[in-house]
Amino acid sequence: MRLARNRLLRAAIVAAIASLAADLVQCQMGRVPLLFTPALAATPAPAAAPPQGDPVLGQQLYQSCMGCHSLDENDVGPRHRGVVGRRAGSVPGYSYSPALKASGIVWTPVMLDRWLQGPQKLVPGAKMYFTVANPKSRADIIAYLAKQH
Length: 149
Ligand code: HEC
Known about the structure:
Layout: H1 2-31, H2 38-42, H3 55-61, H4 98-101, H5 109-117, H6 119-122, H7 135-146
Helix pairs in contact: 3-7, 5-7
Bound molecules: heme C (HEC).
Heme C binds at residues 64-65, 67-69, 76-78, 83, 88-89, 91, 96-97, 100, 107, 112, 115-116, 126-130, 132, 141.
């Protein structure tokens, strides 16, 4: 008798846990569309989209690139005019690393953001040794470059 009741109780507990788990799953699933509501999309989502860049600030920050780059002359690094939208490793007359030339990358803002976080991480064997740690600074520089057609 006592044993039977214990079994019933256990069955009830198992059922309760199962239904709780189902609720939790539903709840989690219910949350997913929330991530895409416009209100939340407007707030910076970590790692999803880079912050909005300011090209005026970007022009100032671009000075840190000018040790090696300029807009119109190949130098230590390739010239930058028109880089946003350009295929990596495609400036004539500049001697790229074989790795960057073969990378197949097109310089979208997202790829530039990854490049500036760590060129060798993005393209092992690349020969640019410079990173920009601050996400907002990267966005500013990329916004500036996007305007240099
Ligand atoms: C210390 C020198 C140095 C600095 C500073 C530097 N770069 Fe470079 N950069 C290079 C070199 C060298 C390459 C060529 C890489 C290769 O061939 O692997 C390069 C390549 C690039 C490319 C690829 C261009 C192409 O035509 O495919 C981009 C984009 C770039 N740099 C952006 C920047 C930006 C933006 C900054 C400033 C935040 C910067 N770099 C600072 C040396 C530098």
